[in-house]
Amino acid sequence: MVIEEGIVIEQKNGQVLIAIERTEACEGCPSTTICRADGNKMVMRAKDPIGAAVGQKVKVAVEPANFIYPAFWVYGFPLLSLIGGGVVGNLLALGLSFNRQSQLFSAVGASVGVALSFLVVKRFNSRLEKGLEYLPVVIEIGS
Q1: Quick one: pLDDT at residue 77?
Q2: CA pair distance 46, 52, nearest whole angstrom
Q3: Residue 28 and residue 19: Cα distance in Å, rounded?
């Protein structure tokens, strides 16, 4: 579990926005639905079960698994769709006896697979932004 410290900049409906100093761990992080860059600070959305107020320093717990599942959907699923679409396109070409055009069918199948995966990822992302399931949790209010 990763513990981050920051200052609450907004509170609303059991959630808070927290300004956190940007660290090396922020580089290349796939979780753009939880954090966003704001200069040299990161702004993180988190669940607030303990009722932190604006301006208070808080500690936030971030479970590593909360990054793995969304990262799979953003990076892994399109990659698997690309490969799967290419294989399906190739098999379709061979099944229809278009042996010489199998690479073309593979390229078209891969393109269709990626395009469809982006629709799935977009739907997943909108569901993720609405839910609280993968958000970090405020665990302590500091001084």
Answers
A1: 94
A2: 11
A3: 18
Distance set, CA 40 to CA 11, 80, 123 (Å): 21, 35, 30
E strand residue ranges, 34-80? 35-38, 41-47, 57-62
Which amino acid, 55? G
Contact between 112 and 81 (Cβ < 8 Å): no
How far apart (Å, rounded) are the C-alpha atoms in residues 138 and 124?
24
Q: Please report where in the chains the tokens 């069918």 appear, as a residue.
A: 105
pTM for the complete prediction? Answer: 0.61
Q: Are 57 and 7 in contact (CB under 8 A)?
A: yes
Domain boundaries, the chain: 2-63+134-141, 67-130
DSSP string of 10-45?
EEETTEEEEEEE--GGGTT---TTTEEEETTEEEEE
**CATH, range 2-63+134-141:** 2.40.50
pLDDT tens per residue across span 20-63: 876 666 555 655 555 555 566 788 888 889 988 888 999 988 88
